[in-house]
Amino acid sequence: MKLTLIVGFLLMCLKFLAFYLTQSNAILTDAIESIVNVLAGSFALYSLYYAAKPKDEDHPYGHGKIEFLSTGVEGGMVTLAGLAMTIKGIHSFFDPNNLQNVDIGLGISLFSGIVNYFLARTLIKKGMLLHSSTMVADGKHLLTDTWSSAGLVLGLIIIYFTNLFWIDYVITIGLGIFITVTGFHLIKESIFNLLDKADYGKIEHLISVLNVKRNPSWIDIHNLRVVKYGSVVHVDCHMTLPWYYTLEESHKEVDSLDKLVTTEFSHEIEFFIHADPCVPKSCSICEIHDCKVRKDNFVKRLEWKMGNVLPDEKHTASSIL
Fold first, then answer.
1. What three-state secondary structure class fits 30?
2. pTM exceeds 0.70, yes or no
3. For a Cys staple, 22 with which of 60, 105, 222, 226, CB 3.0–4.6 Å?
4. Cα dihedral sign for 142, 146, 148, 149?
């Protein structure tokens, strides 16, 4: 992120130099977005530092959610920049200016786009590896900047060979709309994460792991919740165990489930498991065949699925239907 910030600042200076030499509104649009890159990158860098702070009394779940706030702030700045660019492009139709040195602007824009592309791919790859939504969001923003530069380069090539300078204003409006939409998506993603929207992809992965590695004494899993706090994933669930297990035996099974999930997932996992005692109606799905206190016959193994592990209710044979 430090490297991204330094390179972003240098590219911003380069783009404003290109605007000064060409007087192109489209290049000015690209340069203004670079200001957003630098500001957003600064806040993103701080958010990564803050998110890495250990838990404390005031923040028992850690400080990771600031990453979602950082994504929202970046999205807000991108949206405002995009709107400003669109308005600037529309205004230019009524107050045009003469372009010059188009070839220089073309070269600088091409160079900036290539640099941003490699920065974006590196950020996204690192962000996914470290489960950092801030780095992924910043990478996606830079990738958008790359496509903006590609469109800008194409437009400047057309202007260079045709002298149709009004294309510059069309490009400005198009880039402005494209950037505004990108900013809106970043804001939307930030809001969903801050409101703890369920990540069904992670839940389905977790359920598939539990189905394959389950222990016969794990009669039931229900009330499953997965919440992400920055790079840390918190998993809550209720686990039904035989009622006659001692506290020590129950703790052993809970610990076994905790270790299984932590081993299978690359995220930093915090598992909060509530142990429930089984009830007579649980016998129909209980796979402990040598149980000496069975109240009912075993009917069928219950395959855990999204629809039956999320509700807060113990399962029975009727749950299979």
1. helix
2. no
3. 105
4. positive
